[in-house]
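Objective 1b. Sequence-to-structure analysis of Pyridoxine/pyridoxamine 5'-phosphate oxidase.
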Amino acid sequence: MQKDLGNYRKSYEKSALMEDSISNNPMQLFKTWFHEVEQSDGVDEPNAMTVSTIGLDGFPKSRVVLLKRFNHEGFIFYTNYTSEKGKAIAANPNICISFFWPNMERQVIIKGKAEKVAENLSDGYFESRPKGSQLGALVSNQSSVIASRDVLEQELKTLEATYKNKEVPRPDHWGGYLVRPISIEFWQGRPNRLHDRIRFTLQEDWDWKMERLAP
Ligand SMILES: Cc1cc2nc3c(=O)[nH]c(=O)nc-3n(C[C@H](O)[C@H](O)[C@H](O)COP(=O)(O)O)c2cc1C
């Protein structure tokens, strides 16, 4: 069985990324790009990002999660701390997150170190979630093998009854990670595969070094 995909070919022509017209602070540039994506048509979840970790088995693994906040410190997402990614991060906090916004012909690749956010931040975000999502976090021992879907549905029913008139407490195993970036690369598709790539690398004095990379 095979399928030849050699004819998938697209010229990227929407925009350009030039040193003299961008911020020299990558977090500021990320904010600008994110805003432009939000304003554009054709991206359902601009905050969906791929998170790659180095697993306990030595293999990298990538999965999509939702970015829930970013600021000058970094990028925050929420998950289960005992999931496969949680265990990977506990052993090796060096991770990579990336965004692909096809309608803008843009990609951003961020390398950084992940750390758990303060408990009160996780509490605040957990409280803001709909009750169904809160109970889902309680029910799911994320990444563990389960016998069937019924197991989840039954557990959810039990918990719905338990918390009918009560607030759902945030489980200890659920919370946020802050990814503090050490390098951020911006990629803008250009014609003839001569794409623009600008990489910012954090220096010892906390300044960012800006470099252009060959496409
Ligand atoms: C669009 C989308 C958004 C997702 N958002 C999250 C999220 O914010 N947090 C999360 O833990 N998993 C999220 N997931 C599920 C993850 O991709 C993944 O299945 C889960 O976190 C378990 O990953 P792990 O077993 O590698 O730890 C999302 C999946 C998709 C497709």
